[in-house]
Amino acid sequence: MEFKIEELDKKKECFEINEKTAKDLKTELKTAKFTDVSVNFEYLNLGNKLYGDNKKASIEIQQENCKRVIEVFKACKKAVKIIKKLKIEWSGVLYIEGLKNKKNNNDLMLIALLDTHFNYNIFKRLGSAVHYSCDYLDKENEINNMCDFKDNKCVKHRELNIEKKTGCCPSFCKYVDCKVCTVKNLSCKIFMCNFLEDRGYYFTPHTIPVLKKHLNIVERFMCFGLLFKTTKRTIRRLWFIRVLLALAGVVLSAALVMAILAIIL
């Protein structure tokens, strides 16, 4: 199923997923008469910026936002399953009223979570999470105009009068270009210079919902250190870490069993 977010036309007869209906979706969906599904703007926390006055404040805001987005995702996931079970014809479009007034990209993140869960098997979800996270971070930068490029110079280099036209990209990166980088490198997109961090613009993989759902804590930490690599190589490295952790778990489990048997026998 293809999931989409669209602006709500008030004439549409929608079942709204909000804090109230999410508490008993099965009953609400069975008794409601609807042709389409909508998500409440405030429930998805679309009216708030995800950045405070400093790095610490931004982390706290994003932690709460991450919890809320995952909560809404769980409600939507449950609703999709119930709709399928009830054999209700539904296009996969989630309508939201007031999208033009949004201050973050939680709508994109909700689609990322739904699409990754329903349309990718367990072996492809890691890759999907990385791709969607890159798109999400690009959109966050765009909606907040963080780097504020003018004539290929970012706001930091203009204000500090630094002659450089590749932003924070180092000259040794083989993908460097005097334009917006087209490589979906998650580590590069998470990175924010001190100049922007002091203004509260900060990202961490631990508060990006789709990464929180599909990457373990070690894999999320690795997202900080895979700079200057293609998406394909980034995903390969993350899978390598996942396999190593799985093997380490097997070895530790075997050692524990042997120790217990040695004590018993």
Oligomer: single chain
How much of the residues is beta strand, in percent?
5-15%
Output the number of helix runs. Answer: 10
Name the average pLDDT.
88
* Number of E-type strands: 4
Side by side, the strands of the main sheet go 1-4-3-2
Given as residue ranges, the uncertain stretches (5+ residues, pLDDT < 50) are: none
Q: Give helix and strand order, one letter per element, not per position.
A: EEHEHEHHHHHHHH
Estimated radius of gyration: 22 Å
Largest sheet: 4 strands, parallel
Description:
The protein is an alpha/beta fold and about 260 residues long. The protein has helices spanning about 25-30, 55-85, 105-120, 125-145, 155-160, 185-190, 195, 210-215, 215-220, 230-265; strands at about 5, 15, 35-40, 95. The protein has a four-stranded parallel beta sheet with strand order 1-4-3-2. The protein is globular and about 65 Å long.
